[in-house]
Amino acid sequence: MSDRPVRIQLSRAKGWRMPANTVKVDRSTRWGNPFDFRSSEYGWAALSFGCRADATGRQEASVRAFRDWIDPPHGRQTVSMEHQPKMVGPGGEVALGPAVKAGAAPSREEIKSALGGKNLACWCKPGSACHADVLLEIANQ
Questions:
Q1: 76 and 126 co-located in one domain
Q2: What is the dihedral of CA 15, 11, 105, 39, to 10 degrees?
């Protein structure tokens, strides 16, 4: 294994063990991505993040939403985030898909302290967009 921390894909295969110096960062942990755009009803949310509305685009959009949540501009910490694409029509605003909400984001200092120098394990396939890559970048700057 490389000296530089990497993303590991979790597995349910018989006999698979998480490698040493690895932290699980899936949605069952505090490090998980609260933005789950897997369902097609989040197509508009994906489009609002500049991504396609297909499954790959929705996954990329969920990672972009995670980055905006975890690492907002101007160095501020996110206390809460709500995102809902809307369209203005003759009767007022119309929601385009469900609202997405997330609570307080961990600070950069918390991420660096807990995850710095460690491999991060998630269910995303290698080569696909994954929030663990965002965490790796912040934790190891």
A1: no
A2: -150
Whole-prediction pTM: 0.86
Per-residue pLDDT of the chain (141 residues; tens, 9 = 90+): 458 999 999 999 999 999 999 999 999 999 999 999 999 999 988 998 999 999 999 999 999 999 999 988 666 666 677 777 887 888 888 878 888 888 899 999 999 999 999 999 999 999 999 999 999 999 998
How far from 119 is each of 19, 20, 71, 136, CA to CA, in Å? 8, 8, 20, 8
Tokens of 117: 């120098």
Domain that holds residue 98: 35-105
Integer Cα distance of 18 and 40 in angstroms: 31
The amino acid at 98: P
What is the total count of domains within the chain? 2
Residues 98 and 110 in one domain: no
| 117 and 136 inside one domain | yes
3-state secondary structure of 5: coil
Q: Give me 65's structure tokens.
A: 């939403």
Contact present, 46 and 65 (Cβ < 8 Å): no
